[in-house]
Amino acid sequence: MPEFLLTEDNFLSALNKFSEGDIERSCLAEEDQVEFEEISDGYDSDPDLDYVPDEDDLLQEDNNTLEAIKEIEASQFVSTPSASKRVKRNRPRISKVLNNKAVQDGDKIVCQIDGEDGIVVANNGFLWETECNTSVAGKTPTKNVVHIRAGPSSTARQAYSPLECFQLFFDPEIVGIVLQCTNEEIELQKKNYKNKNFDGTVKELCLEELNALFGLIILAAALKDNHLNTTLMFDNTFCGDRYKATMSERRFKFLINCLRFDNKTTREDRQKTDKFSAITDIWKILLKNCRSSYKPSKYLTIDEQLVGFRGRCPFRMYIPSKPNKYGIKILMMCDNSTKYMVDARVHLGKGSVPKNISSAEFYVNELISSIEMSNRNITMDKWFTSVPLIQNLLIKKKLSVVGAVKNNKPELPSEFVDKKYKNRKIGTSAFLFRDDMTAVSYKLNANKIVCLLSSMHHDNTISNSGKPKILMVYNETKGAVDSFDQMCHNMNCHRKTQRWPMCIFYNMMNISIINAYVVFAHNAVRNSRGMWKLMSRQDFLLELHKQLTKPWQERRMIQQNISRNLKRSIGTVLGAKTGWPNILPPPQPDQKGERRYCSFCDCKKRRMTTTYCSCGKAICGEYLTNMYPMCNKIGIILFCM
User: Fold this and answer.
1) The whole model's pTM is what?
2) CA distances from 18 to 38, 337, 460, 598 (A)
3) Nearest Cα to 336, choosing from 470, 484, 480?
4) Are 343 and 370 within 8 A, CB to CB?
């Protein structure tokens, strides 16, 4: 991928690309058919709401950062197969349409709903007005003004390297829990390996090696090797030296099999009250870190992600409209500008939602807990949207909503959703108003009426394209979770597994990497003063892999029981990324000594020499002139020249 110099022109071009792109996900699709399966389990902070941003800071930080991230993602992958063929067009200008009297090309684009004295009554007695309040139309209500600067929190602003950004989310507390629980499982697994040849494979796991394991998973995601057979991954003729320079194939498979995230002895008791108990501890820590490390922008999106999984799981879902079809459903809230995942909840099936509240309302209230009273806007699809929920969020939570709504809601009048009402033409819009929300129905085709509700808008504005402004705002802000899910699939840490906790763990790594990249881009743009070269997400992953694996590779290099070829591979990997041969002075070999075979030549050569390295090993003239990592006498890696 080419590198881009961050200049004012690039920012403007990135903004134009974002404005021209139209989210292709159709808001007109029928509601997903979800089928829940009862399967027995086979596997034994504060958002700183009082902060008022400085205008100069907003101009230099927010705009630059958001456009930089959009430039990176726009150049990294195409959102839809037809996007490359899409004809660019200018964004249509918005025209104000008041009192439902708008005409375009001689045809009426607004369908007037008739009501007695301007009042329309729904089936359940809910009252609507047919005319908007002209004194409010065109003004920006106070409820839509957000006095919060979007971007990393004060702690996250101090993270500059990929590793520091990643550790904001995958923090030492999570790594410590994984390390402790995995070592407990290794102790149990040791009983099955009585052959001494497996002592190196089943030994206890240390912190450096665990980080190196994470680094290999991230490397496989960056190179899209996540579903590649491990035999090919660790074959240097196919995938190079980086995999085998970190650990052996047998050790890698053993550690993946032993990864655990909770106390196995108490799991049975905890499962009675928590189906998610096998991984709930580190999941909650990750969500806490996501909420505290970033302040989202004005627009957020709530939608679902289906993490593909076909093994045994008590809350596995079947959603035929999703690419994976079978998997674990996660409800997410993402920032629309950067696709940062702010909060998430796993759908645990029947019994996980209180009986006196609907599932949609329960999950929405859970997800918006960190942004309450902030005047932000939330975009939702018709699975979540309802009139009581919108009113509750606006009055009690100070949050506005733009969302699609099902046509059979009792609060919508029958004539409002009738396709044949007044012989409505295709492309016409009908509006209904209340003090706290606006409803619009748009006739997409002869057999489809699209209904939307908005507590953010209070007029009947229609664009020059004939679409209501509410629909345009919905289309522009509804795709954050879909884009986040696409980024997860594009570079995916997920590997084939039959254990659902591992499936969630891989998705946690995806979440951490994407959020870390957003924080990294914010901080880099803020400190670059317009001269920073954009790092692609793939380069970010590769650099993160290097920083995670380097300490363990250095420690492995000085071990006595590894082969010369393996040391050569490790030295090649370390030398290529550190340049140590140019930093460390070459050791001075002792020219006098007993005549012995060279310690580095193949035994078939039987090459004799009297020259010795500083570590006391015999070395011939060939290895004096060729760089080779070999000395471990003083505990560091030296290079004989």
Assistant:
1) 0.77
2) 43, 10, 25, 63
3) 480
4) yes
